[in-house]
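Researcher: For the record, we're logging two predictions in this thread. I'll number them. Prediction 1 follows.
Model: Prediction 1, sequence and structure:
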Amino acid sequence: MTVSLYAGSIPVFKQMLAGLDDVLGKAQAHAAEKKIEPSALTQARLFPDMFPLSKQVQIACDFARGVSARLAGVEVPVYEDKEQSFDELRALIAKTLAFVAGFDASRFDGSVQREIVLRPGTPKEKRLSGDRYLLNYGLPQFFFHVTTAYALLRHNGVEIGKRDYMGAY
């Protein structure tokens, strides 16, 4: 059985981002119910040298957009990544979901062999085929940041579980 890069990316991004949005909604409700300053959660870190929750969400969205765009052969949209509140983070997820949902499977035709160049013109430049880019770099990066966002909220007492993390599938 052959799975297209579209099938291995867009539905996954949609499912996991929708789950992340639901998790943020539960965190927002948790903060209100427990009278916790929302920034205590949006700026939470697992360790001082790690990014806070807000940045984890921004990076997950960046990867969903960037991977989708590169595989589809279109310009990667650049966002400012200034979101700090739950409402702003959830709006970013909605904007990202709208972007990835806008791709038709045919845009990914030939993307397996498409060369993806990371950090072009720098000493860290890396060239990957589309399939290696998705499977060995893009998806692992995306899942790392979605998982870290989930872990930050769970660690801080938000009552969420695996079903919340997974979203609807």
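Researcher: Logged. Prediction 2.
Model: Prediction 2, sequence and structure:
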Amino acid sequence: MAKDNNYDKIILGIDPGTNIAGYGIIGITKSTMSLISMGIFDLRKEPSHAMKLQSIFEQCTKLMDLYLPDEVALEAPFMGKNPQSMLKLGRAQGVSMAAALNRKIPVFEYAPKRVKQSVTGKGTASKEQVAAMVMALLKIEKNHSKLDASDAVAVAICHHFTYKPGASATKNYGSWESFVSKNPNKIK
């Protein structure tokens, strides 16, 4: 499917979750950001963890087929007090990543603190502060009722502000595709 839009780039941001996952899609024209879509995947009615993961994969794939993002930015799981929760979040992130890689879309990860810092200037900002800045940056009047959606938009905004192709000489590979191409001996 060919792109039929006026954007230089489309970024899909995902805030992974196993009960509610957020997504946000922004379009970039020169240096201007526009909100294309935002929402959630409500996974609470799925009968098992495996079915939640299947739903995440399918819904991410539908979004990618509909909006044709150039890049996907994911919020990385953070280490909390419950290792089981982190494992489940990691799986949710993994199936989101797999959906993007299946469509040959570059994937980028950002730590929660980095997303908050990039959008609000403060790495310890609350979800409400992030939502308020998302609204201000994109000049939208009404935010989504779920903060997971605005968090996902924040991930996309963070990627837009942070990622500059070819600018990094550090070990930040930018995408999994880049990592694999530079480290073929680590992939079996």
